[in-house]
Design goal:
The structure is a single chain. By secondary structure, the chain is mainly alpha-helical. The chain has a domain of about 50 residues. Helices cover about 55% and strands about 10% of the residues. It has five helices and two strands, in the order αββαααα. A hairpin with a 5-residue loop joins strand 1 and strand 2.
């Protein structure tokens, strides 16, 4: 896990409530400039690809300051609702 910090040059590691280790990047510029470009070069399969696309969409909205408006915030909340457990298949959210 420590090698992620070295590789990306950002982030922290902590233990969660279930004793798992978590790598977390909180600084938006690190997410946008380092993490997203890395995963854009990798192959993500299945439902996680749709989660990643949504996550990138939220990052783009935040970069454009949409999160500072009520309408933008509602849009982000709708996107967030379908990430991870809120989605069961590609067709559920992308007809």
């Amino acid at each position: 896990m420590k090698s992620l910090i070295v590789y990306f040059g950002c982030g922290n590691i902590y233990t969660s409530n279930d004793a798992a280790f978590v790598y977390q990047v909180s600084k938006f510029s690190d997410i946008y400039d380092k993490i997203i470009p890395f995963f854009n070069k990798q192959i993500i399969k299945g439902v996680k690809l749709m989660d990643y696309i949504d996550w990138c969409q939220v990052a783009e909205l935040m970069k454009n300051k949409a999160h500072t408006t009520q309408n933008g915030l509602e849009n982000i909340k709708q996107i967030k609702a379908r990430i991870n457990k809120g989605r069961s298949s590609f067709a559920d959210n992308y007809d």
